[in-house]
Design brief:
7 helices, 169 residues, single chain, alpha+beta
């Protein structure tokens, strides 16, 4: 009897998951929704001349692509010879198109350089107090950008900090 208990729990959990998925699933597309989308598409085609005038603005936005580093960075904050906190950060790079292969080929070296910059930032007190202050974050961004440009060249235009959190230990 005790050996069947995990199997029963597994089946109950599976059934609950499927039931929740069915109940919470978005409703299917109706014929009216399809007609509304067709009329929206026709209106967009009619306004294509206006879009051509604004094409220069759209081209400026597509001059870059964004590459996310695969893992978060974890940086210890050391205070009087003990770890006082851990800071986790997620980063992305704004690069010129077609840099994807070169980026992923050099990612280990890039991560190493970024970690060194973050360690130096932590050791200088950059993650103490109001560590998300814009001036403080700009100093970190500039240092990360310099490191990225050393490894990838001027194809990197910005280092984007996607998330940052500090957990006191």
């Amino acid at each position: 009897m005790m050996k069947l208990l995990p199997v029963v729990f597994l089946l109950v959990g599976l059934g609950a998951g499927i039931g929740a998925g069915v109940v919470l699933a978005p409703p299917g597309e109706t014929k009216e929704d399809a007609k509304q989308e067709d009329t929206k598409a026709e209106k967009l085609n009619e306004n294509s001349d206006e879009k051509k005038d604004n094409a220069g603005k759209k081209d400026e936005q597509s001059d870059y692509e964004y590459l996310k580093l695969t893992k978060q960075f974890v940086v210890p904050v050391v205070d009087t010879d003990r770890i006082a906190a851990l800071v986790t950060m997620s980063l992305s790079l704004e690069v010129t198109p077609a840099m994807t292969e070169a980026f992923y080929a050099r990612e280990p070296k890039l991560r190493d350089g970024f970690l060194q910059v973050m360690f130096d930032h932590a050791n200088s007190g950059g993650f103490d107090g109001a560590f998300t202050d814009s001036d403080n974050m700009n100093v970190l961004r500039k240092a990360l950008l310099e490191t990225a440009r050393k490894d990838l060249g001027d194809d990197v235009s910005q280092v984007l900090i996607m998330s940052v959190s500090r957990q006191d230990v």
